[in-house]
Request: fold
Amino acid sequence: MKINLDARFIEDRLTYREILEIKDKNFISAYKEFFYK
Reply:
């Protein structure tokens, strides 16, 4: 079970990292839009 969880964790981290690289700028622009309307 632990091996499966570790593999899943690594897989999720890689995906999360890719999502961050794509959405980082979008998040910043959305943050500014929300707080500086």
